[in-house]
Amino acid sequence: MSVVDELRKLAELKRDQLIGDEEYEDVKRSIIGGSHLHDSLDEKKGIEFYASAVNAWLAYRQEANKQLLLLSSGALALLVSIVSPESEPLKEYGFYFFLVMGCALAFFVCLSSSLLELKYSPSYLKSIITDDSAECIEKLLLVLEKISNWAFWLGAVGLFVLVFYNLL
Fold first, then answer.
1. SS3 of 153, please?
2. Residue ranges of the domains in the chain?
3. Model pLDDT for residues 107-149, shown as the tens digit of each residue
């Protein structure tokens, strides 16, 4: 990674208010004047590898969350278009009713947990940069990830059954 790229990333972190002015100046001086933290090349490679791994993980999770948000929103729209208020099976409060409500709840949980995961990702990145304890936020992000994935797949299976049930 070139010095220009590192300075751009540092400027983005400052713009997003993930680091303060003092941290920004310290890191900027270390990038421009050479690293004063580590002397060996192997240590620098290890730090770069770790930074790249964290960056790739966050980018992947954000893209996955965006996809889940899009698909869950679309599934909720499809659910609304399939079910009309005058629908006879809905008035019976039977299997069809609980399937519709279960799908809607699953997709809503998926949307909520994905949005929360997107909200807490910058906090996780900030805690990694500032060497704070990121374990709590990391565990929260992993739990939210599992919840959003499970909720989406439960809703998708339920929606598939619902569409098949409507075709009969």
1. helix
2. 1-37, 49-167
3. 999 999 999 988 888 787 777 777 677 778 888 888 999 999 9
